[in-house]
């Protein structure tokens, strides 16, 4: 059959299969609150609250010598989990809308992945800058640290490596949040839980293996030897692998 | 249908779609000509949305092939940008306002026309500050209709587009659709179970029922498919002997019978002699009759 011989140029013109990736990227920021303003607010508020608590505790403890007994908080994670949820929203809400606009799943995933990468880079940068501010002000005068945590900022590369690790961790967590929503869309609630349980069993198996081999001291030593930069080297391929897994799941996911 | 595929926008060949326990589409073969307005008609649950989802690659067939402009649409960026299909129950990103959705659509479609979109936004009185999630059914339909029209996609699907729209808004949609179609010919597929609503718009009817195509014909040919005869019951009984009867109603000695097929010159003469009246069959009636007939046949098959 002579298909398409009579079609006009509009219908047969070749275009790059990735021509709409920038548009799919912008689609993720269609509502700027979700990936920009809300996480930024969570970042600032969590930091603000932990500084406040630090100042309050310092005022309570009369005999505290700040330089000898610094506070370390975990509030830097808040924005990370917020972004994981927002990436989940991209899977549950932006994905169906992208199908209405007739994006291929590949272009949508590339756009979403690049958007997550951009947001993660911004998070990593904010993390590093916040660490520098804490360092410059001696933890706001009361030695309270949320970002300039020694285990992250005292390895090779210093604060920059901590920023890199934070950015990569953010990307991995976002791809994971997005991936779970797509997993649910593709396979339904039952099989999503089966996958989660299977992952838990694998983890349990690893723990049992380490225990039976009496290898916990080795594991502990390994962790102590790591630094922000070496963790980053493990996280980068993990994030890429997650992105690939996300694409293979979304390929046959129904919006 | 001819074997020549030039001039077809969409080709669906032997497509079957099975869900766990049901078959939504059963060996469907149908084509949609280029630059025409097609009506995809059928009852709720007939398979209309499934068929449109498969053509637009939102879903894929269990068996069979789909081609849009000669190419398989699944994951194909050569053809997907020419397609627009906003579902009747379309999901939008959280907190999205209508303007956000339009901006995203403008970004996705190279032929998007902002002047046209703004005119439609004013026409349909789309609220500016209401989240799409909180909009009424009609307002949501208006958002979907505006995206579909202003995208100027070469193949545009409307899924029950009149849902929740009032009479004025529906007329507005039909008028704008025809105007824009005249100025920018392209392919439209309108799904509907309210047939007479869109009868004057469509050039071609595809009737789907129970996942099968019952009918695929130009509307003009359909008008001659059946005729209703009204008059004395005995005269009608005599006249309709040997013809396929789609529907019969009797009230005392008066009968109303719808028969399949056009009448020949001689038969029309005979109708006059018997003092019977001829009435045209509306598209809606015809389709209801054809659907019931197909269902009756299926039931008979199952019983035998």
From TrEMBL, chain A:
Sorted UniProt keywords: Membrane, Transmembrane, Transmembrane helix
Transmembrane segments annotated in the record for this chain: 35-57, 77-95, 107-133, 159-184, 191-211, 231-250
UniProt keyword annotation of Transmembrane helix present: yes
Protein name: Uncharacterized protein
Organism: Nesterenkonia sedimenti
From TrEMBL, chain B:
Gene Ontology molecular functions: ATP binding; ATP hydrolysis activity
Pfam families: ABC_tran
Protein name: ABC transporter ATP-binding protein
Keywords: ATP-binding, Nucleotide-binding
Domain ABC transporter: 10-235
CDD domains noted in UniProt: ABC_DR_subfamily_A
Source organism: Nesterenkonia sedimenti
């Amino acid at each position: 059959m002579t298909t398409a011989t009579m079609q006009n140029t509009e219908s047969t013109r070749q275009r790059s299969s990735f021509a709409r990736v920038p548009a799919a990227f912008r689609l993720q920021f269609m509502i700027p609150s979700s990936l920009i303003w809300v996480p930024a607010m969570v970042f600032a508020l969590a930091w603000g609250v932990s500084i406040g608590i630090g100042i309050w505790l310092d005022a309570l403890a009369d005999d505290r010598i700040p330089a000898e007994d610094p506070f370390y908080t975990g509030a830097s994670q808040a924005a990370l989990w917020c972004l994981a949820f927002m990436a989940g929203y991209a899977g549950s809400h932006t994905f169906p809308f992208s199908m209405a606009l007739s994006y291929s799943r590949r272009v949508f995933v590339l756009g979403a992945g690049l958007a997550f990468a951009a947001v993660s880079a911004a998070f990593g940068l904010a993390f590093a800058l916040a660490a520098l501010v804490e360092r410059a002000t001696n933890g706001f005068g009361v030695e309270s640290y949320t970002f300039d945590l020694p285990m992250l900022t005292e390895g090779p590369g210093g604060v920059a490596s901590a920023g890199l690790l934070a950015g990569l961790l953010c990307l991995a967590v976002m791809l994971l949040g997005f991936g779970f929503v797509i997993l649910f869309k593709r396979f339904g609630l039952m099989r999503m839980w089966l996958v989660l349980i299977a992952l838990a069993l694998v983890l349990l198996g690893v723990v049992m293996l380490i225990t039976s081999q009496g290898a916990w001291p080795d594991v502990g030593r390994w962790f102590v030897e790591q630094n922000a930069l070496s963790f980053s080297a493990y996280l980068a391929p993990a994030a890429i692998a997650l992105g690939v897994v996300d694409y293979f799941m979304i390929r046959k996911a129904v919006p | 249908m001819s074997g020549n595929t030039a001039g077809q926008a969409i080709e669906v060949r032997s497509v079957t779609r099975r869900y766990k326990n049901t078959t939504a589409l059963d060996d469907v073969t149908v084509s949609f000509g280029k630059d025409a307005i097609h009506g995809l008609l059928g009852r709720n649950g007939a398979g209309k949305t499934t068929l449109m989802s498969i053509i637009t690659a939102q879903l894929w067939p269990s068996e069979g092939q789909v081609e849009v402009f000669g190419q398989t649409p699944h994951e194909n960026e050569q053809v997907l940008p020419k397609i627009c299909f906003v579902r009747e129950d379309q999901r939008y990103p959280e907190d999205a306002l209508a303007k956000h959705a339009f901006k995203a659509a403008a970004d996705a479609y190279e032929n998007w026309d902002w002047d046209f979109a703004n005119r439609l936004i004013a026409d349909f009185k789309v609220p500016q500050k209401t989240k799409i999630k909180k909009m009424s059914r009609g307002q949501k339909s208006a958002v979907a209709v505006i995206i579909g029209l202003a995208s100027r996609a070469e193949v545009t699907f409307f899924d029950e587009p009149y849902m929740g729209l009032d009479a004025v808004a529906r007329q507005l949609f039909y008028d704008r659709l025809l105007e824009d179609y005249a100025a920018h010919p392209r392919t439209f597929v309108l799904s509907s179970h309210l047939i007479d609503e869109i009868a004057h718009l469509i050039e071609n009817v595809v009737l789907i029922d129970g996942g099968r195509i019952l009918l695929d014909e130009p509307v003009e040919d359909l008008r001659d498919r059946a005729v209703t005869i009204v008059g004395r019951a005995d005269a009608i009984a005599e006249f309709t002997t040997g013809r396929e009867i789609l529907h019969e109603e009797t009230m005392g000695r008066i009968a109303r019978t719808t028969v399949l097929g056009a009448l020949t010159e001689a038969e029309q003469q005979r109708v006059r002699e018997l003092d019977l009246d001829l009435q045209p069959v509306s598209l809606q009636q015809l389709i209801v009759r054809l659907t019931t007939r197909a269902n009756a046949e299926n039931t008979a098959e199952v019983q035998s």
